[in-house]
Amino acid sequence: MATRSLILKEKEDGGYEAIYCHSDGYLTHNGAILLDHYDGRERVEELFKRGDLSYLAPILDPEKTKYHTYDNPCSNVCVFYGRDRGYNAEDTAPFKCTLEEIDKDPLIEYAYIFDKNNTWKYFEVGDFKKDGLKSLKTGLDNLFKEWGFPRPIGMYGWYSNKEIELFKNRYESFNKDQTKDQEEFRQQGNKESRF
Predict the structure, then answer these.
(1) What share of the chain is helix, strand, coil (3-state, %, to 5)?
(2) Whole-prediction pTM value?
(3) Residue 189: pLDDT above 70?
(4) Are the beta carbons of 168 and 131 closer than 8 angstroms?
């Protein structure tokens, strides 16, 4: 089952445009990828030019020499409904919406907003009226703090309870060695990427 999300950008007039992402919309995948790889206005604009996605990844486009489709995706490359699945561009183009409309959408679980200050915010659908927009960085940091270890860099996806316990134990043993610091632990995520 997919975790559906919307990715929004705030426009200068205070309105919003959104694109849909069908899979892996939770914080530790789409949220972390957006924070790490779509951290500037130009990069976000490039993402929006391609429209709705099946799957968000760190890389927008495959290498020109690589074959990339929905059925045969390249590693770490976004899968778009238009380019990679053959959908009509008009049907997958960014659309205008309000945060209040999204908060009532029963099919969407997370909304990620790139605001006018070039900062990522988010909310879990159904909680916007109560909680408002929250900092994506703070939300991710708090989630991993709750799990007992800092967020590994370059690791995106769902963390099972077994994986959470493994990382927590690894971090605790890592911390016993006083010559190593938290950043060194986080960097190991790059070396142990799931992808």
Answers:
(1) 40, 15, 45
(2) 0.89
(3) no
(4) no
